[in-house]
Every structure is written in structure tokens, then in C-alpha cells.
Amino acid sequence: MKRAIFAVLLCYAATATASLEPIYMSRPTYSQLQANADTYHDTHVGMMGVLSLNADGRVYLCESLDVCLSWNPNKLEVNRVALKESLGKNYKRLDRCHVHVSGTYIRDEVNDFGIRIGLLSGSLIRVQLSISREDYAEFNPHCDVWNQAVETSKKPGNENMLSEIIDRMKYTVM
């Protein structure tokens, strides 16, 4: 009898778990942030883009690599101190890599959208590579972390390493 009840409960739990879908945080586009800065202000968001470490010490998350290299305002400043606390010195190895950054969006108080559209900050700032193809280095040869992974994958026994890394990125919910 106990086994029958346990089996029924186990089936119910498996069915309930299978029907649950992951809940993703708010992931607006750069245009949505700019158009609705007040709505997103002080909200935890996830943003995709290229991380750019500038010579002046500022860190930006840019909509594209072209945006990082120009005065295009489609970028968010990332709190460098929070980033360093999250990743340690390794955050520098993500320069010019495509990443997913989650943090608290703070609108630009002076509304100077000529430089940036706000700040990603907070104690819960997280950064993760966001790469969807094994040949990523052909498109962007500047990402040190990915280039090291490519070199490691060339060693015997690591043939599936890149596809496994990409699969983990795809299914990780931040």
C-alpha cells in the first residue's frame, strides 16, 4: 500500500515538474530600455551584448561590436566594481566577448542618451558568455575566453567540448 501511494505521488511530482517552464527575467532590447527608461528603472534585467573594457576604466555592454567602437548610444555602462566582485580579475578576459549580463537597470538621470542609455549595477550582477556557434572565433577573434576554450578543445579527448559549452549556455537560466 505504501509503495502504491509513493508511486502515485512520484508520478504526480514528475508530471507537475515536467509542466513547469523556466521563468526568465525581463530581457528588454536596447531600444525598449531607451524608450521606457522610467518603467525599467530599478528593475533586474538581463541584457545580451558585447562587453567592452575602455581605457578610461569604464565597462560597457554594447548592442554590437560596432556600437562599442563608436559613439553610438546603444550601450549600458556596467558597474565595474560589481563586475569585479562577481568575477574577480577574470572579468578582463571577457573584453569584446558576446555575453549575457544580468543586473539592476538604473536609468541615466541626466538622460544623456548620446553616450549611454543607463547603468547595470547591483550586488547580483552576473555575466555569462553568450555564444551560439562553434566557429564564433572566425567572426570575433578578440574574445580571449573563447579562444582559450577553442585551443583546449583541440587536445585529445576534448573533441565535443565546444558543443557542450554552447549547450550549457543555451540552457542556463540566469
Automatic annotation (TrEMBL):
Tree of life domain: Bacteria
Keywords: Signal
Signal sequence, start to end: 1-18
The species this protein was found in: Alkalimonas mucilaginosa
Name of the featured protein: Uncharacterized protein
